[in-house]
Amino acid sequence: MQAADIHHLELVLLYLVVLVSGLAALARRFHTPYPIVLVIGGLAASLLPKLPTVSLNPDVVFLVLLPPLLFAASFHTSWRDLRWNLVTILLLAFGLVGFTVAIVMCVSGWLLPGFDRRLGFVLGALVASTDSVAASSIAKRLGLPKRIIDVLEGESLINDASSLVALEFAVAMTVSNQVPTLSAGAARLLYLVVVGILLGLATGWFIRLGQIRVTDAPIEITLTLLAPYISYLAAESVHASGVLATVACGLYLGHRRSQLLSTRARLESAAVWGTLEFVLNGLVFILIGLQLPHILAGIHDLRPGQLILDGVILVITLIGSRMLWVFAESSITRAMGRRFNWQGPAHRSREVFVIGWTGMRGVIALAAAISLPELVQDGTPFPQRDVLIFLTFFVILITLVAQGLSLPLLIRSLGLVSSASFDGEEKLARRHMLSAAMDHLLDLRTKAMPQEEKVLADLLCEYQDRFEEANTTSTPDTPDRQNYEEYRSLRNKLRLVERSALLGLRDRNEIRDEVLRTLERELDLTDVRFLLPVHDS
To answer: What is the pLDDT of residue 196?
Structure first.
């Protein structure tokens, strides 16, 4: 790469980061989810003259931006909640994708002249799956209830495998007239899923081996930054699902973060990953908005009104098919629960409606559309390629902006304002931790020397007060300097007891991972304070 190319790249990155920062600040000022503002802002910036034009490179999306964002979303996903919603998620991630592709194929004849079933297959595969980046970034910021977010995130993390298989066969049909069999499609999907998940778990296992042998926070964090890229590239190298490999790796390491990462690594990695996730999310959404000139430049001899009408028909088809499926899925899930005596998550009709309405598409669909081949096997242009890209962009724009902006009103109208549903679990965890620590203190008092009695009594009083209040931040009077070292040592041991009790609750599925991380962070911050060297006054 020449120096001039590097200089140009630096200017483009600076331009994008400034746009992301400014628009995110504007979104905060108007209390609007920043992904929506970034898409609109990018769209507006793309129409201004004399500003840099930034085209979307599919390789940059799939190989640079996507792996860490998928990893971050899966790393913070609760394994307990994923298992709890597994039937619903699988029916959405696989069944809904196939249903959407079939519906889009059926209505493709209503679109522009020249749209046949093959192109309908391609278009359906492009827009069938929801986007994990969009689901994670927008749903949480709109105040959706946690039980809805669990389903949306789980669906969007998995459904790329089925949509990519559909797209692979759709492109093959268009390019070389190959008509896949049902068995070939099922075998390809099985290979994508199984091999991708196995490689992701294997990568997580090797990263785990490195992390348990290292106690230096920067190195531990660096290993977590490498994990998404290693798992993604490993799967893609054998033509398996890099998306599922990254998700599996993130779930594996996220579930074991308490045992793998040191105290400082857990505290510092939260800041590192929070900043990285914000910047990459910002780049993803700003790039979507900036693509309009490039997309319109490839369309000739077609009236804008006709294109918009086709886009509206497609969006209505997608929303309608998703609504129909999620209500059918809810009935199927309840019937399965009665048939197999299984107590699954029974979503209310209002919640099912919101799940159906929140089918946001994102940058993965656009990158896949742009990566469509330009020529077919006989050397002629890929039919309607530019129109396919435009319709995909239109779907992304409407589902992100229009549906995203309507969600707060919809949530309030349906009475689904988010509440801290895990407050009860957090209080349960606090009481369990403190009770375990007090039991340990009482055992110590039975064996204590007379000079240790004062420190143990002070600690016991503190833990009894905290147990009564459950969430108080009060602290006992500081012990005298002579007993401080013993006091600090006992506090460290008691926090180990609390930590063990907390992990036990999570492993028994009595609390969710968010509660674990909240209380573990409090313990980590206390660890850092008590591990600091003591200086003479």
So the answer is: 93
